[in-house]
UniProtKB/TrEMBL annotation:
InterPro entries recorded: UROD/MetE-like_sf, Uroporphyrinogen_deCO2ase_HemE, Uroporphyrinogen_deCOase
A Gene Ontology molecular function term of the record: uroporphyrinogen decarboxylase activity
Main location: cytoplasm
Occurrences of domain Uroporphyrinogen decarboxylase (URO-D) (ranges): 22-31, 143-159
Protein name per its UniProtKB record: Uroporphyrinogen decarboxylase
Family: Belongs to the uroporphyrinogen decarboxylase family.
Localization in the cell: Cytoplasm
This protein's UniProt keywords: Cytoplasm, Decarboxylase, Lyase, Porphyrin biosynthesis
Known role: Catalyzes the decarboxylation of four acetate groups of uroporphyrinogen-III to yield coproporphyrinogen-III.
């Protein structure tokens, strides 16, 4: 097994000593990079890119070269799981994802299979993971990921992105048993899928609960958190003799950090609606924290970005357990130089907090 040359990210996830704060960012392989757009064009579209292990590896490594990121994240999409469960998925040019035949009733949910052999059902993703590990050659760790059951359900029931989530909320309120059956099937499928990624070489995994924050506290616990807990409890937590950290990210979920930490995850992903010192005071002796710069800060000029990085580092202060990141993904129209400056600022300004 190739030795890991930079393991700052894995150490920070486990709240161990580091020489500086590691940094990566959500959507770091994406449209703001001309290199990404060129590879996507060669692939002939986003989904074809996801299905080519060699090209997935190429785009996964682009931000490692360009930004000097401390972790790589598998290039794929959360929606390949419902697609593998039999739902047709399309990405039109310049459009978000669409499921032309969304889930509308109990019978639709009953028909859905539970995935249990990811090497068969999502073999191209497993191949991408092992190809990326080969190409990384131990430079930085590789993060695998999946969507939370609730977040996947929103796309499957709405048929795509949504403004007010009318269909998925109506199903949750009117037919809670149907919703629970859907979430159960998704949780068990996602657990098998993440275990497949870990077996193929993922050294950490993140669960993206992008839409957990649209729920109230009771419903978040019943319809989102419960099923993330169900996944966490099924995961293989070791790879190459090292612990595989689990990161839980519920956008809009900063009121529920204590409950999230209770799932047994290792790291909480923060959006930018909470100050990191407050999050640290609430849960920082139990889990590491990942975040939490507002992604739109990357539209500001480089001096302003650096000042913000310094402010977040100062708020976290001394001590272990911080992985620097944005509070959500980088947007497509950010100048790449700004992202480069962001990563440089974290590397330079964080050293003083680890002496
Ligand atoms: O972070 C990374 O670099 C890894 C790659 C990654 C993608 N999607 C690539 C992608 C990850 C981790 C995701 C997760 C994902 N996908 C989430 C959860 C995280 C989040 O951002 O909230 C969600 C909700 C999806 C579903 C999805 N995929 C949407 C809503 C869209 C369109 C949104 C948009 O920004 O246009 C996608 C498309 C997508 N996934 C792109 C990328 C790079 C852009 C597609 C393109 O290249 O045209």
């Amino acid at each position: 097994m190739t030795e890991l040359k930079n393991d700052l990210f894995l150490r920070a996830c486990l709240r161990q000593d580091v020489e500086r704060t590691p940094v990566w960012m959500m959507r770091q392989a994406g449209r703001y990079l001309a290199e990404y757009r060129a590879t996507r064009a060669r692939a002939g579209g986003f989904l074809n890119l996801c299905r080519s292990p060699e090209l997935c590896s190429e785009v996964t490594l682009q931000p490692i070269d360009i930004l000097d990121a401390d972790a790589a994240i598998l290039f794929s999409d959360i929606l390949v799981v419902p697609e593998a469960m039999g739902m047709e998925l399309t990405f039109g040019v310049g459009e978000g994802p669409k499921f032309p035949d969304p889930i509308t009733c109990r019978a639709d949910v009953e028909k859905l299979p539970v995935l249990n052999d990811p090497t068969k059902e999502l073999g191209y993703v497993m191949d991408a993971v092992s190809t990326i590990r080969r190409d990384l050659n131990g430079r930085v760790p590789l993060i695998g990921f999946a969507g939370s059951p609730w977040t996947l359900a929103t796309y499957m029931v709405e048929g795509g992105g949504s403004k007010n989530f009318s269909k998925v909320k109506a199903m949750m309120f009117n037919e809670p048993e149907t919703m629970h059956l859907l979430l159960e099937k998704l949780a068990d499928s996602v657990a098998a899928y993440l275990n497949g990624q870990i077996a193929s070489g993922a050294q950490a995994v993140q669960i993206f609960d992008t839409w957990g924050g649209i729920l109230n506290t009771r419903d978040y616990k019943e319809f989102s958190l419960q099923y993330m807990q169900r996944i966490v409890s099924q995961l293989t937590r070791e790879n190459d003799g090292r612990k595989v950290p689990v990161i839980l990210y519920s956008k809009g979920g900063m009121g529920w950090l204590e409950a999230m930490a209770d799932t047994g995850c290792d790291v909480l992903g923060l959006d930018w609606s909470i100050d990191i010192d407050e999050a640290k005071a609430r849960v920082g002796d139990r889990v590491a924290l990942q975040g939490n710069m507002d992604p739109t800060m990357l539209y500001a000029k480089p001096e302003r970005i650096r000042a913000e990085v310094k402010d977040i580092l100062a708020k976290f202060g001394h001590g272990n357990g911080h992985v620097f990141n944005l509070g959500h993904g980088i947007t497509p129209d950010v100048p790449p130089e700004h992202a480069i400056e962001f990563f440089k600022a974290v590397r330079e300004e964080s050293v003083q907090y680890h002496r």
